[in-house]
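Field reference: sequence -> structure
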Amino acid sequence: MAKMFEITVNQLQELAQERPLQLIDIREPHEHAAENIAGAISMPLSAFDLARLNQLAQEKSLVFHCLSGMRTMNNAALFAQVDTDEAFILSGGLNGWKARGMLTNK
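Structure field:
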């Protein structure tokens, strides 16, 4: 089981300097298609795939996000099932990302 940590956009950037990361967008496919963070994998909460997450976690640290951070925080126990030491939740989600002036794909 993973220990979950909430991190800010700045902490995400620092962490990315230390290790390979994989952003996991838990929003629904139409939300991801409308706007997303470059490199984020769409894995909607409605189609939670623990086996795929375990596979991804073998090579990269996982960072989960949604639009505001609420869906991700509310489902932290679900993400903690991933077979890794730690995983992360992006504080503020996509909105927090944009508030820090970071670019998105539209």
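Note: The two ends are 34 Å apart (CA to CA).
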